[in-house]
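Running this now, will post back.
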Amino acid sequence: MYSIFTALFIQPTLNLLVWLYDTLPGHDVGIAIIVLTILIKLVLYPLTMKQLKQQRALQTLQPKIDEIRTRLKDKKDEQARELMALYAKEKVNPGAACLPLLIQLPVFIGLYRALAFGLSSKSFDLLYSFVPNPQQLNPHFLGVIDLAQPSYVLAVLAAGVQFIQARQLLKTTSPAALKPPPEVAGNKAAEDESMAAMMNKQLAYTMPIVTIIIGIKLPGGLTLYWFVMSALTVLQQAWYLKRLPPKMEPQL
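Update: finished.
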């Protein structure tokens, strides 16, 4: 059944994928997915930069945030007011860090459905009139990996790059940013800030494991997209963090 989601996400993604498959030399669906991923990354570039700045600012503010949450743990309303005042003062929006992920989710689902449709000759009724009908897409990437089937290799690669992505931010966090600020350094509640750092480190190890578990059940085309998107994010983070020394807070 044709739906709004199909019209907004599945059909455009399928058409762009098929157009790239028809246009690029070699007619390789894997190359088409890589180019499609790069195009999506370019569209999301401004949002990703905003996400990196927000993550950086939140890392710097974490000791103050933890102190407020611990000191006012039994006064939720007052806690919320102080946190909002802190965010407003430092021009930080915690929700902005999740925006690129929320935008990518329908794109990811659209790509999943587009691959499911695109690797079946029954799906080409969704093509726009100006997109040539290839009749059938060869699912093999470089003639080796069947992207219509789960790929353990791509799942492991995606997990590895995601681990690098998480460690990249952790390693570049200034030790000073993990210590309580002067105005709260004498407060015992500030000691709880170490818990947040420990949780971030745990996520850096657990998320790649989750990626493997999920990735080995998805079509290889999706894990290829996941791998390329994560690799591009690593490069973008490296470029951003190279321009911003760890001890500095970004000016938003």
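Helices lie at 4-23, 29-71, 76-90, 99-118, 152-171, 193-215, 220-243. More later if anyone needs it.
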